[in-house]
Amino acid sequence: MGALSHIRVLDLSRVLAGPWATQNLADLGADVIKVERPGAGDDTRRWGPPYQRDAEGRDTTEAAYYLAANRNKRSLTLDISRPEGQAIVRSLAAQSDVVVENYKVGQLAKYGLDYASLKAVKPDLVYCSVTGFGQTGPHASRAGYDFIVQGIGGFMSITGERDGLPGGGPQKAGVAIADLMTGMYATIAIMAALTHRDRTGVGQYIDMALLDTQVAMLANMNTNYLASEKAPVRWSNAHPNIVPYQTFQTGDDGWIIVAVGNDGQFRKFVEAGGEPALADDERFATNPSRVRHREVLVPILAQMVRKFGKDEWIDRLEVASVPCGPINTLPEVFAHPQVLAREMAIELPHPSGGVARLVASPMKMSETPPVAHRAPPTLGQHSDDILRERLGLDDTQIAGLRESGIV
């Protein structure tokens, strides 16, 4: 029994932020019904290659992007633009604890599927809307894209190499970080709303925005600015107040991170690199001196690091107790002994006959751990089961819905 095995979720969201939240709930045991457009489904089903492979190793139509955010769910195809489809959604909502959607502001009201409409059929419903800019404000009607929000929300102003350096300029994160963090915040908000409902019997509406989340997650960079009124600058591969605290390329074209926090660690670092005299040079002997002479020191250290390969550097620095780490490629990540020990890669049988290789939930819980028990569903895979189980429809009624294009 999962922690949320008593919770039913109606998932009207697609792409990433909403599905990320509902996947968290599904991992914790909630019964999540993913409602998708007949014949098309979630946009990300087509965001490939790469694709899920069948038992013979051939590509299916299930993109890996879609697989990342939809495990443990059931798929129901439904045309919600038609009255019959809307009626089914209302019937399912009446039996659900949570509804999650990421349509444009006001769009579901046209279908009678907004919070006010569904609250009328389920007064204690928890209803979560996920949009780019929220339900209020001058930009509320705009479509929200993660890349754009990373820029508007300030993330890219502090991410990337410093201006004036090779490759300098703003950069986006390597994943859709605003989407993912919005999904995480949405999960927390839904859990809080369910707890409140269980204590009071009162449901509520949750208004989640990518931009709000992007602004909030800048954490200390936000408060640094608010306290000083000075905008932070990009120091992605270095530290403004500590040297060396950055990345270096190694002799085998790998990369390492060296995080020297004090003068003793600096001495051990340069001794490990065969350049002990650097620790006695008055320009580099103390951290304030190293910060002042950063432009001179860093090229010297970069040349020193080129003497050895990545693995040898990690071995040398770990023996010397110098904080360090490799910058791993994904093949190296999934071969890492700690990642293997934590069982972060999982395999689930896929309806195609192949095996879906997925990433496990990182939540480790002693009594109610997340369980991956169902591969991301194919389009409409569970439509008949859901209609029979939840609405009591028989085969003739379901066939009629299919013939009319409702399902």
UniProtKB/TrEMBL annotation:
Gene3D superfamilies: Crotonobetainyl-coa:carnitine coa-transferase, domain 1, formyl-coa transferase, domain 3. Keywords: Transferase. It comes from Pandoraea capi. This is CoA-transferase. Transmembrane segments: none annotated. The keyword Acyltransferase does not apply. InterPro entries: CoA-transferase_III_domain, CoA-Trfase_fam_III, CoA-Trfase_III_dom3_sf, CoA-Trfase_III_dom_1_sf.
